[in-house]
Prior knowledge:
Blueprint: E1 8-12, H1 17-28, E2 32-39, H2 52-66, E3 70-74, H3 76-92, H4 99-118, E4 123-125, E5 131-135, E6 138-142, H5 160-164, E7 166-167, H6 175-184, H7 206-211, E8 219-222, E9 228-232, E10 259-265, E11 270-275, E12 283-294, E13 304-309, E14 317-325, E15 328-338, E16 345-350, E17 353-362
Parallel strand pairs: 1-2, 1-4, 2-3, 4-7, 8-11
Antiparallel strand pairs: 5-6, 6-17, 8-9, 10-11, 12-15, 12-17, 13-14, 13-16, 14-15, 16-17
Helix pairs in contact: 1-2, 1-6, 3-4
Amino acid sequence: MKSASRGKVLVGLSGGVDSSVAALRLLEQGYDIEGLFMKNWEEDDSEEYCSAAADLSDATAVAGKLGIRLHTVNFSSEYWDRVFAYFLDEYRAGRTPNPDVLCNREIKFKAFLDHALGLGAEKIATGHYARITEAGGRWHLQQAFDRNKDQTYFLYLLNQHQLAHALFPLGDIDKPEVRRLAKAAGFPTHDKKDSTGICFIGERRFRDFLAQYLPAQPGEIETPEGEVIGTHQGLMYHTIGQRQGLRIGGLKGRGDAPWYVAGKDLERNVLIAVQGSDHPMLFASGLAAADVHWIAGEPPGFPLTCMARCRHRQPLQKCTVTMTDEESLAVRFTDPQRAMTPGQAIVFYEEETCLGGATIREV
C-alpha cells in the first residue's frame, strides 16, 4: 500500500543531472512531486549558444522515467527586468556583477516559487548543493556536505519565506554519488557535463555577447606609474586579477612575468595592470560593501567576527564586520585578500551556517 504523501513539491527540472536526482530523491522520500522546466532567455537563441531545446528534451525524458508530470514556463521577461538589466547596469558602472546570485533570488526562488504556489505546491525543490535547517523559529541556510560543490555563496540573498518553501535534496551527498544514482535510475543526464556560463543564457564567447548590449569603448592600459603599455577594447571586458586577454608582452626591460588587471580608472577609461601574481596592488585587507542582506531577517550583533568568502569556492577567511549604515558595511580581514572585485558578493559564515552577504563596492 502506498504511504501518505509528505506534500506536493514542484521540482525545477533543468535537464541536468543534479535536478534529475533531486526529483528522484524526493519521490523516494514520499513526496508528491511534479517537475517544472523554465525557459528564461530568448533574445538571441541559436543552436550555437542556446541548449534550451536539448535541456527540455532531457527534462522530459527524466520526468517520463519518474512517471511525473512536467510543466513548462517562460520567465524571459522577468529575467530581463529583474536580472539582466542589473547585469548590464553593473558593467556600465565598471563593476563585475554575479548574475547567478540575483537569478536565484528573483527567478528560481521568486518567479518559480510564486508559480509553484499558484499550482498548489507546498514547496519547491532544486538541485542546488546546500542544506536548510530550522531551529529557534528560524530557517537557516547551511553549507552542503560536498564542500567542493557547495552553492550557498550564490544563495545568500534568500529570505525566511523562500527558505520555508524550499528543499535542497542534494545537500547531504556528493557529486559522484549524484551521478551514480542518476546512472542507476537510467537517466540520460547521468554523464551530462555541468552547465557553466551566464545564468540561463549559457556558454558563449563573453566579449562578443556583451558587445551586443554595451558599445565598446577602447582605451589605454597603464602601469600604476602611468606608463602606457597597451590598449583595451572596453573596461567591461576585464575584471580584477584577470591575466588572460590583456595582450601585453615583450615590453623592453620588463622581463617575462605575466601582467594582471589591478584596477580601473573610469573617468579616463584606463585599465591599470601590474606585473606578477603577487604584486601588492592585487591585495587588500579590507573592503566596503552595500546592499546588505541577512538571511535571519535581522542583522547580528556588531562588530561581528566571522568567516567570509569573496568568490565561489574560495577558502573561508576570518574577518571582522562593522556596519557603516543600515545598507552598508566595512570588512577587515585577518589576512590580506587577493583580487577582491567590486560588483561581486562577499558572503558571511558562522561555522556551517550562511549568515548573509553584501555586494562589494570598494576595495
